[in-house]
Amino acid sequence: MEGERDSPAGTSSGVLENAWKQFGRDNPAGKALFKLYNKDVTKQIGNAYHSKNKQAHDKKLATGWTPPPVAEPPKPKLERPQVEVPKFPLKRIEYDNLGAARVDLIPRRRPLEVIRREIDAEYERMRAAPQPPPNRPLLDEREKARLAELMRFRGKLPAITPEQQAEMSKAVPRKSQRQQLEELFSAIMGEIEERRQFLRDLEAAGRLPLETVYMIRSEIQDRVTELQRVDVLLKQQAGEL
């Protein structure tokens, strides 16, 4: 019963394995059937050939046959290349017997003396040749002065030169010594009043540390001393002392 059951399955499997032959492998349907039912065909064929060859080889070995040894190819012998170099006889030149320097034996187109004479002649010809006339007007005194100023200030002329600045300072009337003392007296008074106002502002704000009071009072005292000295000078100018 089991054989009868298995035979249709085996027959159907064999039919399916050969189904690709109905289509051929040159179309998508035949390729798909071959991949689906004949995955190991190539492997099975290779194994069959391998088993057949192995059995034949084992039979030959059983008869006493041995495979011939494989001879290794001979290694090439390395030889050093022979290079032939031409040899020329050396000829030594006795310079002492020639009566000339070695540099004189170098072949030239013209001797040194000829070249020097040509250079001297060219120099004399250039000196004797007339000078070409100028192609632009000659520099006058005004242009020379302008170029001198450019060289003096390195190409950038200032808006006011030092000489002009000196002339302008001379034109401004200078203050007398009494006027200078009066301006100094007013400036010192302003500094003293400024420091007193600073102390009043700190006291009104409630932030008057003792160190600041000592420092500001010391500065005020210094300026009072200087103010007294200026006052003495003013009185001397007025002729009161």
TrEMBL record:
One of the Pfam families matching this protein, by short name: UPF0193
Region (Disordered): 1-22, 47-82
Tree of life domain: Eukaryota
Database matches in PANTHER family: UPF0193 PROTEIN EVG1
Protein name, per record: Uncharacterized protein
Upper taxonomic lineage: Eukaryota, Viridiplantae, Chlorophyta, core chlorophytes, Chlorophyceae
